[in-house]
Amino acid sequence: MSTSSTVAEVVTGYADHLRSRDVSEHTARAYVADVSDFLDHAVHSTKLRRGTEGGHPSTTSGARIDLASVELDDLRSWLITLDDAGAAKSTVARKIAAVRSFFAYGVSNLGLSNNPAARLRTPKKDSRLPTVLKPQQAADLISAAEGPRTGDTDASDSAAGGATTGDTTGPTTGDTAQGDTAQGDPLDAAKRIRDAAILEMLYATAIRVSELTGLDHSDIDDRASMITVLGKGDKERRVPFGAPARRALDDWLATRDLFAGPHSGDALFLGVRGGRIGARQVRELVHRYGSDDPSAPDIGPHGLRHSAATHMLDRGADLRQIQELLGHSTMSSTQIYTQVSMQRLQDTYRRAHPRA
User: Fold this and answer.
1) pLDDT of 131 higher than 90
2) In a domain, 128, yes or no
3) CA-wise closest residue to 239 among 221, 253, 223
4) pLDDT, the chain, mean
5) What is the CATH number of the domain that holds 265?
6) Does residue 272 lie in a domain region?
């Protein structure tokens, strides 16, 4: 492929390159979207437009672009539009990483003479600390799934269940708002058992939501009370869990057959239609059960991960061990929890010490 091609050809070639490099599906999808965003910006600039005769191309994907003509100023103008749109620093940092990767690919595969994105400066991330629950609030969130509540429509399963991979066939009994809310409905009771197990496992193991939804039954080591997790960069790690999570998991596995269908496979957690539960469903159920406590901050699955790490540090866990538990590749990612723990100590001191 030459440096001058249609946007669609360039994006397809880059996506194939990422797949060949075993980049995670999540990262590849984000990078391709970021590069597509930049190329859309580029082809609509006066300098770089290579459209149909006499003007503007009918679609961005069909427009031609000469990558050799891209300069640092073009990339900077794109970043300015992102800043004007209010993009977060973390989003801008990821987009910069994406175009750096893309133009590095262009140098090695498309004959570009240089990488104009190499000189872009990555913005410093905001120093905002993660939001965490107090230990009792975490316990209350988990216990909220254990008791029936009249009028609880499980929107995450009825609306999102069919959107997850493989979750389009299988048992449908009770897969309506009326069936879900009927008192004594065994499927509704089973969903609560599943939700409680999900919440217990998220908090007990501090794993990412993508890691939880990717768990198979075979990933559980019953004897050691450990799970094998496939984390970022397809790196495996073993994570322990405690007795409450063990009991919740046993309860779920005893009722899993109510959800299982021909497409369930070995997936540990299932949606009501029999497929592997999706990340959106898990996020929605965490928010739903958390809303029972108005004094607690509204968090998602990652908030439970932050909370678990902070609570372990508060109780004397070694930072290096927390890094291993979380699957962080560098200590710098884990050190943020020392700041959270110190801030909590300062808050307690100001409230409790007579001379604070």
Assistant:
1) no
2) no
3) 221
4) 82
5) 1.10.443.10
6) yes
The confidence score (pLDDT) of residue 245 equals: 95
44 in catalytic set: no
280 is a catalytic site residue:
no
Catalytic residue among 95, 208, 306, 311: 208
- 212 lies in which domain range? 135-352
Kindly state whether residues 256 and 231 are assigned to the same domain.
yes
In Å, how far are 171, 174, 176, 274, 344 from 182, measured between CA atoms?
17, 9, 10, 20, 42
| In contact, 220 and 268? CB cutoff 8 Å | yes
217 is catalytic: no
**Catalytic: 26?**
no
Amino acid symbol at 147: G
pLDDT band at residue 350 using 50, 70 and 90 as cut-offs: confident
Do 100 and 227 belong together in one domain? no
- CA dist., res. 148 & res. 91, Å (int): 40
d(CA 325, CA 305): 11
Question: How many distinct structural domains can be found in the chain?
Answer: 2
CA count, 13 A, side-chain hemisphere, 287: 10
Shared-domain flag, residues 139 and 113: no
Q: What is the CATH number of the domain that holds 80?
A: 1.10.150.130
Q: d(Cα 265, Cα 315) in Å, to the nearest integer?
A: 39
Q: Does some domain include residue 130?
A: no
Is residue 188 pLDDT above 70, yes or no? Answer: yes
Residues paired with 5 in a beta bridge: 65
Q: Alpha-carbon distance 233 to 161, whole Å? A: 27
Please say if 328 is a catalytic residue.
yes
pLDDT over 50 (residue 48): no
Shared domain for 275 and 313, answered yes or no, is yes
The helix/strand/coil state of 1 is: coil
Same domain, 14 and 102: yes
Query: 232 an active-site residue?
Result: yes
pTM: 0.63
